[in-house]
């Protein structure tokens, strides 16, 4: 019979794991300061300070890079929502509290450095950016649409979600740096992506320990997140438009989500090799396997459609040039 524990019991049982991983993180994390990654010499005053306000021709970023930068920054800006959820579902003392504080402080640097870069280089409209930030942070964010309806172990759902989410944002930041055509932006986003990877490892290790402790309950959380995953930028202004651009140009697309985010974590946890699930857990695992098979088919269809769209766009460009 698989153990069924409450959130409080799970937190208590896993606190030594959290403590070990907080210590590990502090040993391997790199200390860095946002100001060291911003090209301050490229900055100048805006109109209210006697300079000139932003205009589109000032930006050296492509439309794709702008969309990705804005999406990534607004995602980081919603840190108050993420902190609120972590503080709600984790303990407010001991190793859990130490992690929430450390993680929040590190995540805050990401929004600082990306915004400073965009303002100094005049990469995007700062007024529109601030309006979008106000709207997005005011709306808040929940891990999955099914969170309140289906899941009672909120801690497990939260840990499973952030494992996938941190890896997803690492992929998005890293690929955004590549399309900016600016070595400064690339270096900056490599630094941010490295943080995200370390955060993912903490959550992945905790989730792995939860699978050992309460296999069926943890699997339910993992499967719920995979099947209902929403990027943390969901709900921000122009999210769908920007997401389409990012997917079209390979910054974060369904193939990357499946092959670079979902499957690596499932392999690390040995979801399809474990033998400690009850019949209920095995049934849930079969449902997850079916979902992944369907997702693979959807990914293939997306890739075929994208190839056709890119081909049509290339032909149009050739026709214009001719």
Automatic annotation (TrEMBL):
* Keyword match tRNA-binding: no
NADP among keywords:
no
* Cofactor(s) in the UniProt record: Fe(2+)
Q: Which UniProt keywords apply?
A: Coiled coil, Fatty acid biosynthesis, Fatty acid metabolism, Iron, Lipid biosynthesis, Lipid metabolism, Metal-binding, Oxidoreductase
Q: Which N-terminal residues, if any, form the signal peptide?
A: none
- Domain of life, per the record? Bacteria
Coiled-coil stretches, from where to where? 285-312
Q: Enumerate the SUPFAM superfamilies for this protein.
A: Ferritin-like
Q: Which InterPro entries match?
A: Fatty_acid_desaturase-2, Ferritin-like_SF, RNR-like
Family the entry assigns: Belongs to the fatty acid desaturase type 2 family.
Q: How does it assemble?
A: Homodimer.
Protein's recorded name: Acyl-ACP desaturase
